[in-house]
Structures are given as structure tokens and as C-alpha cells.
Design goal:
The chain has a two-stranded antiparallel ribbon with strand order 1-2. With 112 residues, the protein is mainly alpha-helical. A hairpin with an 8-residue loop joins β1 and β2 (28-29). It has helices at 2-9, 30-43, 53-66, 71-78, 83-87, 90-104, and strands at 17-19, 28-29. The radius of gyration is 20 Å and the shape is flat. The chain folds into 2 domains: 1-44, no CATH class; 52-112, no CATH class.
């Protein structure tokens, strides 16, 4: 509608809905998505305080990077204008790689 078109022109999200839908369930708002992931966390036995939309986004990016996805592809998927925003996710892999080298490299092993 006209209000959404004006919002897009002003640089705001195209919709107030996270996932617009025409189905019986209707639209999924950001607020309801937040509540939903908290409920799913409880059902899964995970502390709901540790599960947020941001942690899901972070896990998504980290798993893509660990799986070999190109940083520019991840940048596009996350909607980052600047690559430096996406590079934040590489710190997790840096720590993982350091631990892997210390564990597996022959010169890092304690042979004593």
C-alpha cells in the first residue's frame, strides 16, 4: 500500500511484518516471532534467555562461514552494507581454528 511504499522510500522496512503471509496463520510479526522462539527454546530444553533472533542470526552466519561459504555471500544474505560488519562473525572461527591447530599440529603437541 501507499504507507509501505513511503516507508521504503524513507529507508524503513517494507512491512511491519517479519514474514508476511496469505495463509490461514496470517502474518508473523517481529514480536510474535520473538515469543515463538522463546517457546520453542523451552520445549527444546534450552535456556530461553540464550535464544534471541540475534543469536539465531549469528548462528546462521557462523555455520555458513564454517561450512565454507564466501564472506561476500554471507554479507548479502545478512543485508550488511559494509563487509566489516560481516567480518565480526569470523572471530568464532578464528578461535576454533586456533584450538584445532593446538590440538592437531605436531609442533604444538606435548611429546614430553
Amino acid at each position: 500500500d501507499a504507507a509501505e511504499a513511503a516507508a521504503v522510500k524513507a529507508g524503513k522496512p517494507a512491512s511491519r511484518f517479519l514474514f508476511p503471509g496469505n495463509g490461514a496463520g496470517g502474518h508473523l510479526t517481529r514480536e510474535y516471532f520473538y515469543v515463538l522462539i522463546k517457546e520453542i527454546a523451552v520445549l527444546a530444553g534450552v535456556d530461553p534467555a540464550k535464544v534471541t533472533p540475534h543469536t539465531l542470526r549469528h548462528a546462521f552466519a557462523t555455520h555458513l562461514l564454517a561450512g565454507g561459504a564466501d564472506l561476500r555471500v554471507i554479507q548479502t544474505l545478512l543485508g550488511h552494507a559494509d563487509l566489516s560488519s560481516t567480518e565480526i562473525y569470523t572471530h568464532v572461527l578464528d578461535e576454533h581454528l586456533k584450538a584445532l591447530v593446538l590440538q592437531r599440529h605436531p609442533l604444538a603437541r606435548d611429546e614430553g
